[in-house]
Amino acid sequence: MKIEAANRSSVVRVESLDDGAVWRVFLNTPKANILDAEKIAALTSLFGRAHRDASLKVIVIEGEGPHFSFGASVQEHLPENCAAMLSSFHALFRVVLEASVVTLAVVRGQCLGGGLELAAFCNRVFADESARLGQPEIALGVFAPVASVILTERMGRGGAEDLLLTGRVISAQEAFRLGLVDELHENPGDAALTYARAHLLPHSASSLRCAVRAARLGFAARFREEIAALETKYNDELMRTTDANEGIRAFLEKRAPAWKNQ
């Protein structure tokens, strides 16, 4: 049976499986699956609905087409849009925490920027050999607030700072070695569903949610505190620099940035 996302938006497609115990969620604007304002709103609404569905146990998130997501909309990072974009994007992750449903990410192809933040925030990440993962924000003269918190949880500080400070994109194999990817499979979508059915669906939905909240208790408190501070730093400090604005405009204009180091 197929159901629509909570706001009835086609940018996120949802399939209800296993008598409603599993939602298979597709970012549905291939090939890039950009996390723009419309898709962020659809996902936020979806997780709000998930929070209210007592029978739901697992949400599997993947990208329609060959890629998971190229990341957030760079256009929405322009100064006139940035504050609203950050606020709504960070609200999505707060709603994910509040829902406390087990989340599994299925990663194929490009998984960059905000796309990697969404995948890394899931409880478990399944990928295939085509996956390429990275936080390229620094190349645009900005930083990734959500990744600044979640990547240290997954990879440790050394691995997280490598990706955050260099902007380099890594292979699926390297991501697996670093702990950014939990499992590599030829068909990660099938593997995620097999994992859910074998290891999660036998359990109580209410108990699973309690277990998710317990496992993430410290992280959730730290995330809420740190993301608020990072959002302020991004808006009040970073976006007042010349280079942050130059990097974003250079990307949109398809040219190399001319850094002034200020």
Question: Beta-strand percentage?
Answer: 15-25%
Return the average pLDDT rounded to an integer. Answer: 95
User: What is the top-level CATH class?
Assistant: Alpha Beta
User: Biggest β-sheet: count, sense, barrel?
Assistant: 7 strands, mixed
| Helicity range | 40-55%
Total helical segments: 9
Number of strands: 10
- SSE run: EEEHEHEEHEEHEHEHHHH
Unreliable parts: 4-8
Structural class: alpha/beta
Euclidean distance between termini CA atoms: 54 Å
- Dominant shape: globular
Number of domains: 1
Question: What is the fold-level CATH name, i.e. the topology?
Answer: 2-enoyl-CoA Hydratase, Chain A, domain 1
Strand order of the largest sheet: 1-2-3-4-5-7-10
- What's the CATH superfamily, by name? 2-enoyl-CoA Hydratase, Chain A, domain 1
Second-tier CATH architecture: Alpha-Beta Complex
Radius of gyration, in angstroms, nearest whole number: 18 Å
Detailed description of the structure:
By secondary structure, the chain is of the alpha/beta class. It has a single domain (2-185, 204-252), classed as 2-enoyl-CoA Hydratase, Chain A, domain 1, CATH 3.90.226.10. It is 49% helix and 16% strand. It is built from 9 helices and 10 strands. The strands form 2 sheets. The protein has a 7-stranded mixed β-sheet with strand order 1-2-3-4-5-7-10, sandwiched between helices. The termini are far apart. The relative contact order is 0.13. The model is unreliable at 4-8 (pLDDT under 50).
